[in-house]
Design brief:
Jelly Rolls; globular; two-stranded antiparallel ribbon; binds calcium ion; 2 domains; 18 strands; Type 1 dockerin domain; 40% strand; mainly beta
């Protein structure tokens, strides 16, 4: 694996180099990196409830850390498709926004464990506001259709208000009939076009390749939901979907996650704007949004969907921290 990344992760979680690039890496060595604000909460929109956070941690099909990897037994009911939202074990990092030069990278491996999928099976990165508004890039299995063996490819998808659509880039096929397959996925800032629209690059690196390669037609105009998370924050999740029970159940594993120039929420308790210091800027943010309700509000530090005195007290108790 990438020894440079491992060194980075062991040396320090947060590195700021001469170009002021912020890099967070979790190598999943024996657990989640405790310096990162890992969460199991996602927003599953539900017309019957007011605060739609759902804890996705689930022991029916458990996860574990093994050989520097996060291994998740794939839950047969998981779905993000339109209104069929079910999420088990979607670990994620809450983000406040993306800065220029941003990138999100992981290595994902699907291990079918002897099963021959006849339905779509996938895992990868999910950049989300909620389960009905997200962008996904994933390693996916083209099922065995009875005449052709299963094979693997990279694809993208996005959903906006329960309308699911192709995400603009794909590559493959690889690994025909292979029992497992892995690749590295990378989403990154693609600059802007002549109309000043932000662009995104989807990139891939297979085992044995020396670098990432742009997935056609990268760079392309950044889908709206990615821009929304880039501007207003959301979550970067590791997600997986498998539509069948296996014997044994298939597994997905992630070798690491690397974030460049992504502003994470909750690195320091009470630091609402993510600048590393709890001060009057954070206090004012809470005061100005006092009484606001809804999910994914930066000032709602305890995630109960209301900005109130509990959040204010958290700022006050931590005032001066990191400054
Ligand atoms: Ca690792
Ligand atoms: Ca959905
Ligand atoms: Ca702050
Ligand atoms: Ca609150």
């Amino acid at each position: 694996m990438r020894t440079t990344l491992l060194t980075l992760a062991l040396a320090t979680t947060l590195c700021v180099n001469a170009f002021a690039q912020t890099v967070y890496v979790d190598e999943f060595e024996g657990g989640f990196n405790p310096a990162l604000p890992w969460s199991w909460l996602v927003v599953v929109p539900n017309p019957d409830t007011e605060c739609d956070y759902v804890n996705t941690q689930n022991n029916d099909f458990p996860y574990r850390f093994e050989d520097g990897r996060l291994v998740i037994v794939m839950h047969p009911w998981n779905s993000t498709y339109e209104q069929w939202n079910y999420a088990a074990n979607f670990p994620n990092l809450p983000v406040l926004g993306f800065d220029p030069g941003w990138a999100i990278e992981t290595e994902v491996k699907l291990d079918l464990r002897g099963n021959i999928p006849t339905v779509f099976t996938q895992a990868g990165l999910m950049v989300m506001r909620d389960m009905d508004n997200y962008y996904q890039t994933m390693l996916i299995v083209m099922p065995n259709d009875g005449n052709n063996p299963h094979k693997f490819w990279l694809s993208t998808a996005h959903e906006v208000n329960r309308n699911y659509a192709y995400g603009g880039a794909s590559a493959g096929f690889w690994g025909e009939n292979e029992p497992s397959f892995s690749l590295k996925l990378r989403l990154e800032d693609g600059g802007v076009n002549e109309n000043n629209q932000p662009l995104v690059k989807v990139r891939v690196q297979l085992e044995g390749w020396t670098d990432f390669v742009d997935v056609w037609p990268s760079p392309f105009v950044r889908p709206q939901v990615l821009s929304e998370v880039a501007q207003n924050g959301g979550r970067i999740a590791l997600y997986h979907i498998v539509g069948f029970y296996g014997d044994p159940q298939p597994e997905v594993s992630f070798g690491y996650i690397r974030l460049e120039n992504i502003r994470l929420a909750g690195i320091r308790e009470g630091d609402v704007n993510g600048d590393g210091c709890v001060n009057d800027t954070d206090l004012l943010t809470v005061l100005f949004s006092f009484g606001n309700t809804g999910e994914e509000l930066p000032a709602d530090v305890n995630h109960d969907c209301t900005v109130n005195d509990t959040d204010l007290l958290t700022i006050l108790f931590n005032f001066g921290s990191g400054c």
